[in-house]
Design brief:
The protein has 3 domains: 3-75, no CATH class; 89-227, no CATH class; 234-380, no CATH class. The protein is globular, with a radius of gyration of 23 Å. The chain is built from 11 helices and 19 strands. The strands form 5 sheets. Strands 11, 13, 14, 16, 17, 18 and 19 form a 7-stranded mixed beta sheet that branches. By secondary structure, it is α+β, with helices and mostly antiparallel strands. β6 (173-176) and β7 form a beta hairpin. The protein has helices at 3-14, 20-43, 48-59, 62-73, 77-89, 124-134, 186-195, 229-233, 237-242, 328-337, 339-342; strands spanning 105-106, 121-122, 137-141, 144-148, 156-157, 173-176, 181-185, 200-203, 209-212, 215-219, 248-250, 259-265, 273-281, 294-302, 308-314, 319-322, 352-359, 370-372, 378-380. Residues 1-23 are annotated as: Disordered.
Length: 382
């Protein structure tokens, strides 16, 4: 049996018992998820057959998926309407804003069947409950909502990519097929609010608080925790833009087992968050048309009482020259744009300029997202 036949048989069994448009919807959604995940695995070097087998293994047996789909699509009308409102509607992004100070517990989610990435997934049902209490008006498409905040006259569009990219393919939404629940990316939520000019900040690391325009939203529970790493990473985007780089990129967002480890001794206060950043050139063989392959490579660390900060950067970034001037990173970018200098970048002969930053937790760029810690030293990775 070919891989295509095996996939078709799996989808047929997973959609058994459904008819007409419901059957088409189930099959289209399931096939779209499988194909997107296969593409990710093939980029990591797996063959088409290997990727297909792994994805089907991750999803579990078709009968298990079928039971979840049956509850979603074929249950009683009241249940189906309720579930579709939750899965299709409230899985869109709801911003957090209120004139009152509220404290919520919103469960998080750690995907087990997809690659890491710059996402912070949370339960939209918890967000929905708290946002309605906060008086946020929601209109427009349920998966591309327009939000009206009490203290802001202009509505805010939270764009999940509907009409351009499938939000599940772009991973702004993610579905747990086993439990038939959708989770949304809090980073996209925060970014939409920042673009609207509202203050956004993060407090804490494990199960942090997301502060938006006077509201306080507690992310994560003891059983479904949230880590603030990817939310703090949002504060580096203005620096990347200022330097003309495509975006920030963390090694944690890849599945590479190789890294260059850099340990710096710094006078710190416990629980402060620090970033080590430098410029890196992404390989272009996967995308020869990539117009700007330069990114802001970084890692984040929450300080402990020891004063030792250990960062893990991509393996090629072995030699670093710490500096106190963000403009020095432009010299690194110039070296990476020069084919004659590119091959010796981040070597002993030409260490990559790097910055050590203390992050304030402010995501809004106008609020002082970071402070540069002056350093004049060389670091060799290990």
């Amino acid at each position: 049996m070919s891989d295509s036949d095996e996939l078709s048989r799996y989808i047929q069994r997973a959609s058994r018992g459904s008819r007409g448009r419901e059957r088409q919807a189930i099959q289209a959604e399931l096939r779209g998820h499988i194909e997107a995940r296969c593409q990710e695995l093939m980029l990591l070097g797996q063959s088409s057959a290997q990727a297909s087998r792994q994805v089907l293994s991750e999803l579990g047996g078709p009968e298990q998926v079928n039971r979840g789909m049956f509850k979603l699509y074929l249950g009683p009308q009241v249940l189906r309407t309720s579930m579709m409102t939750f899965l299709g509607g409230w899985a869109a992004l709801f911003a957090v804003a209120s004139l009152s100070h509220s404290l919520a517990q919103v469960p998080g989610y750690q995907p087990v069947y997809t690659l890491p990435g710059p996402f912070t997934y949370v339960d939209p049902q918890g967000l929905r409950s708290e946002l309605l209490k906060a008086g946020v008006e929601v209109s427009g498409s349920l998966t591309r909502p327009t939000l009206k905040f009490p203290q802001v006259s202009a509505p805010i569009l939270v764009d999940t990519g509907e009409g351009e990219l499938d939000p599940f393919f772009s991973r702004l939404l993610v579905r747990d097929y086993v439990h038939q629940q959708v989770y949304l990316d809090a980073n996209t939520l925060a970014s939409a609010v920042v673009r609207a000019g509202l203050p956004v900040s993060i407090v804490g690391w494990d199960n942090p608080e997301l502060h938006v325009a006077g509201a306080i939203l507690k992310l994560g529970t003891s059983s479904q925790p949230v880590n603030a790493y990817n939310l703090y990473a949002l504060s580096l985007s203005p620096l990347a833009e200022h330097l003309g780089l495509r975006e920030p990129l963390s090694l944690r967002w890849t599945e590479s087992p190789l890294s260059s480890t850099h340990t710096l001794q710094v006078q710190v206060r416990p629980d402060e968050v620090y970033a080590l950043v430098t410029v890196m050139r992404m390989p272009t063989h996967f995308d020869p048309q990539l117009t700007n392959p330069l990114v802001l490579a970084f890692d984040l660390v929450r300080a402990s009482g020891t004063g030792a900060l250990t960062f893990h950067l991509p393996y090629d970034l072995f030699y670093l020259q710490l500096t106190s001037d963000p403009q020095d990173l432009l010299q690194g970018a110039q070296a990476l744009r020069d084919p004659a200098r590119r091959n010796t970048y981040a070597s002993a002969a030409q260490p990559a300029p790097a910055l050590l930053l203390r992050l304030s937790g402010q995501i809004s760029p106008q609020d002082g997202a970071y402070a540069v810690i002056p350093r004049q030293e060389r670091s060799a990775g290990y």
